[in-house]
Amino acid sequence: MKLTSAMNNILSSSAAKNIFRKIMPILLLLCFVSVCFFSQFSNSVTVDEFSHFPSGLYILKTRDWRMNKEAPPLIKCLPALSSLITKPKIETQQFQDSPNTWRLGYTFMNLNRNQYQSIFAHGRCMVIILGFLLGLTIYFWGKELYGYKGALLVLSLYAFNPNILAHSSLVTIDIGASLTIFFSVYCLWKYLHKPAAFSITLAGVALGLAQLSKFTALLLYPIYFFIFGTLCIVGSFKKNDRDIKFPATIIIKYSKDFFIIILISIFIINLGYLFSNSFLPASEYNVSSDLLKNILSLFWSGLPIPLPYDYLTGFDYQLAQAAGGHPFYVSYLMGEHSLTGWWYYYVISFLVKNPVPFLIMLAMTIIACMKIRAAKTDTVSFLCIWVPAVAYFIYFSFFTHTPIGIRYLLPIFPFLFLASGFLFHQTIIKFKRMQYLLMLLMVSYITSSLVAFPNYLSYFNIVAGGSRNASHWLIDSNLDWGQSLPALKKYMDKNNIDKIKLGYFGRVDPEIYGIDYSLAEQKPTQGIYAISINFLVGRPYYLLKENTHELLYIDINYYDQYRHLEPSAVVGHSIYIFNMRKNISERSSGE
Predict the structure, then answer these.
(1) Running DSSP on this structure, what letter comes out for residue 461?
(2) CA-CA-CA-CA torsion sign (184, 189, 195, 199)
(3) Short-list 551, 590, 556, CA closest to 573
(4) Quick one: which of 32, 71, 249, 392 has the fewest CB in 10 Å?
């Protein structure tokens, strides 16, 4: 009896362990989904959401790819599928001759004022699903590289990163593009390990889907070329967990496969646009950027270009924006403004917008990869993880001139999380001190993330001084993206404020969130004022006039007289309250 009981305990213990192993990744992803779902209700419709959702719905209704052409249609259209549930109204007729994404946004808002918040809540759920899929992809790749425990570390880093949580609950394209870019490189990695017709096709389809998500995914083509070229030079492709040298004939075969992958991706791009205006003569593509002008000049004017007209002209428009120089896209860093940006902008934003434990683990990973031979033997994995991360970091730092948010760097985050899984390599994790250190860092990491709930968009780490000191470092979508209207409404209700003088950075009408307001004057007089931090530090943008709902463009110094006043409260880390009422003592409370 005792022997039978002992055997049953062993079996039940083993079964419980297996169940736990299967459930743990699911629990982490469910935690991620829950945090994203509930945190979204603390955010009003942000600046880019205001235009992205109606633009995606407009494209689904009309197949007019010109609307919001600065980004391809895939990720914009996916959240709009939630309209099958919410059934919002949308005007399409007046935009057929002259598509304008911002005018569409205001028209859409006014047509759907009563259910506006619900429409975006449903749309955000679609983005949360994309975030879930990205987490799932990270876990599966991590498991293939590092085993179960390493995959859990990688997934935990993803699921509790404040930047990921912030943008996984907004109707924008950043998380969706990060998913397709990461998935495309994962498919390339799978192909390089097991070349076959299916893996070639999957790699091509994934690469094409990435191109339909964001124009910065075009960087994947030189990244792929670099990875293939490097592997050909070293003559080393991974097969059956060992590096083997390939003769020239095999290298030629892989070059052909690479070409097929590119052809498939081009087919997917055309398919995504339903082959609308594809294969037009080169002379009919009207572009303004020097890059595309020079490229098209190399071709015969009558040569059919195998890309949709709206795709190519959309990329041309994005190149013009990336060039910077327009006052509307002024950048801000540590108290300074610039029209051209700084090469170190993304270095600083990455360091202040990520939890310190993650930065420590990333530093440990880089050191381990340089010191431990095992990190260098798997050439394919090393290139597929680090080349995209470094390439995107270099591109945004040195080849763009409108640094306005760390969200542009989001595509590199999954690769850095995946790289950190190397800390679970047996040559590292066998040391007890390393196990304890990683456990301490992960507990600190998760704690810092949960404490920040629900204000993930305005998260800054403790070394940077937290969200209270955020405007010393960065603004715009790093801190204030027009998300704090629910927090302002809560503050007004708590302090019995019926009407407020508002200088709000955002597009959505504050009245939709129950806020009765008038525009804050340039010079404060009497009353209670609420001014967005973007305006206080000098971000040119628009104000929405009450009643008339007309737009007023304001310059960098419009609210300069408020900059040296002491706020009585700060709500949502982004709207500053100034109590200028006479004979009423100031009350200080905030979030």
Answers:
(1) -
(2) negative
(3) 590
(4) 249
Residues 215 and 80: their CA atoms lie apart, in Å, by 20
One-letter amino acid at 264 equals I
What sign for the dihedral angle of Cα 162, 167, 170, 176? Answer: negative
Q: Is-cis flag, bond preceding 524, omega within 30?
A: no
d(CA 86, CA 54) in angstroms, rounded, equals 13
CB 53 within 8 A of CB 80: yes
Q: Could you identify the residue written with the tokens 């749309």? A: 123
Q: What stretch of H or E contains 241?
A: none
- Of 295-304, 320-329, 353-362, which range is least confident? 320-329
How many Cβ atoms sit within 10 Å of the Cβ of residue 441?
20
Band (254; pLDDT cuts 50, 70, 90) = confident
Q: How far apart are CA 232 and CA 342, in angstroms?
A: 36
3 state SS for 433-458:
HHHHHHHHHHHHHHHHHHHCCCCCCC
Helix (H) or strand (E) holding 424: none
Spatial separation of the C-alpha atoms in residues 209 and 243, rounded to whole Å: 30
Q: Which tokens hold the place of 249?
A: 């004939």
Q: Report the C-alpha gap between 492 and 481 in whole angstroms.
A: 20
Residue 2 clears pLDDT 90, i.e. is over it = no
H runs (alpha helix) in 481-574: 485-494, 533-537
| Both tokens assigned to 417 | 């999380």
Average the pLDDT over 357-369 and give the result: 94
* CA separation, residue 502 to residues 6, 522, 559 (Å): 71, 11, 11
Q: With H, G, I as helix, E, B as strand and everything else as coil, classify residue 237.
A: strand
17/126 Cα distance (integer angstroms): 33
Angle between helix 248-272 and helix 220-234 axes, rounded to 10 deg:
170
Question: Measured between alpha carbons, how far is 309 from 313 in angstroms, rounded to an integer?
Answer: 6
d(CA 88, CA 368): 53
**pLDDT at 527 exceeding the cut of 70:** yes
pLDDT at 589: 42
Task: Tell me the pTM.
Answer: 0.92
Cα distances (Å, whole numbers) of residue 339 to 384, 471, 486:
34, 18, 32
